[in-house]
Fold this protein.
Amino acid sequence: GFASPDGAPAFLEQYNSTSEVKLFEAVDAEWNYNVNINDQTQAASEAAGIALSNFQAEQAVGAKLFEPSEITDTNLRRQVEKISVVGEGALSDEDLAALSKVNGDMQTAYSTATYNGKPLDPDLTATMASSRNYNELRDTWKGWRDASGKLMREDFKTYVDLQNEVAVLNGFDDMGAFWRAAYETPNIEQQFEAVWQEMLPLYEQLHAFVRRRLYQQYGDKVINLKGPIPAHLLGNMWAQDWLNVYNLVEPYAGYTRPDATAGLQQQGWTAEKMFHEADDFFGNMGLIRAPQAFWDKTMFTKPTDRDVVCHASAWDFYNRQDFRIKMCTEINQQDFVTIHHELGHIQYYLQYMDQPTVFRDGANPGFHEAVGDTLALSVGTLDHLYKLDLIGKPDENPQSDINYLMSVALDKIAFIPFGYLMDKWRWDVFSGRSAKTNLNQAWWDYRVKYQGVTPPLSRTEEDFDPGAKFHIPNNVPYIRYFVSVVVQFQFYEALCGASGHVGDLYKCDFNGSTEAGKMFGDMLKLGSSVTWEDALEKMTGTREMSSASLVKYFQPLLDFLTEQNTKNNEVIGWPDYSWEPPTNT
Ligand SMILES: CC(=O)N[C@@H](CC(=O)O)C(=O)NC[C@H](CC1(C(=O)N[C@@H](Cc2ccc(O)cc2)C(=O)O)CCCC1)C(=O)O
Ligand SMILES: [Zn+2]
């Protein structure tokens, strides 16, 4: 027998008030571990996480006493349905403890790993960004993987089994299906594949152009103009964005350089100043400014006296007053963009903080990732960087515009296949499509197939290269970033329209536009109280992810790349897909 639907409001009232307290306790313990890694804080964080899982499992029992279809108010019904999801608490105490432990151990292993005594942030990241020495890059690339991923292989297998047990106990085939359920869209995988196919031509043209420039830089022994690119030459530990090789691929030398790093450093900007400038950008649009508690509790820079998780992150303490960022900020443009990304999360938390706790989430995980990046597209324009006195007056000519679009493409277009393959690989592992005896081979099959990159050294199943990327040992789904690259251009185009922008889309700076701010804020306020299609339609008029805005934004660059690649008779794609660079250089 079901509980009377009349009891739903009272049930939800107690859920909302108690869940705020439980969520705060779990987030606070996880924060204390992130800003001070040691056995004690790791154990306390795991314990608080287990307590939250058990709380959610108990509440799910109460929620399932209701028959949703009998709850006529769709908002209440949606809350009850979300609370009915048991989650990790479906595991036995023993298995839940084992999952927490293996997650904690992989997190700590990743965040404390060093190569030659150097941590990933900032040291190894800086080497991968600035070195042009083939062998130094290769040794750093290998050293990081030996110190991180390689040591996690067995833990990861345990993690996969326990995650799948959670999924099955929650009524899903495997954890990949559970993760995809967050989109509430039956054919979501087909939608992902469709937008990937639409963007692939743009990626292939960029890949061919960059490969040619790397060929000129590193020579024909290590670059095959018909093959994948060695993965350690693209300025990033995972080749996930190629911003740091801009100097090698700049279309027009001598024209405006779209990089504010020099300006930030020469003008003596501090981390706090970067944060305040970014917060002003939100405020000047009529969005919500970060509260005082944010400025009091945020960790702006890497402390020198303890181990911390340096990977930037934003935190909602679910008490409607405490919101923080933790970041090991360096003074450069990439971190200025990252600050906007993290403040985008904070903005979403602030906008939906009066929603019931189960609705304090992105309309889908990709929306949460797109908020800050959407504003960063405006901040990064040549005009805006000039307004901030971070670059000289930009030349008003096509060459400077192509240089600018190239810098954005090295960040956004280069990222697309990586954003796609990270979870395709994990979905295959969870579903068993990839055997546990074949984890690393399956990873590199996708890295070649989708990204057109190949390892600088031969890899075996003794290695575990996926573990060398934060989100794998930290159990953070990744397709959200792929979705974000697509929808952030849909959001950007909509906000540019609201701000009255005319002319080239990529020149739009909606700084100060309260019309744009209202359009965005009205969508963000909804949190996950509506489906992402409803939220998207409210803002853009369409109910589908579409690459049309992105393709429109980059059209001038695509024309340039196609013209250059045709002139150079480039082979588009990497038909010599099994080529590998020599390992004895
Ligand atoms: C408590 C908690 O965990 N909070 C969540 C937020 C939430 O869920 O509420 C959170 O802060 N997650 C951290 C994560 C950090 C970053 C990241 O991991 N980025 C991806 C992909 C990417 C790359 C370039 C880019 O421009 C945008 C994304 C990567 O680096 O590979 C690193 C710098 C940027 C974003 C994040 O902010 O998403
Ligand atoms: Zn994010």
Summary: The chain has 23 helices and six strands. The two ends are 73 Å apart (CA to CA). The pocket of zinc ion (ligand 2) is lined by residues 341, 345, 369 (CB under 6 Å). The first strand starts at residue 114 and ends at 115.
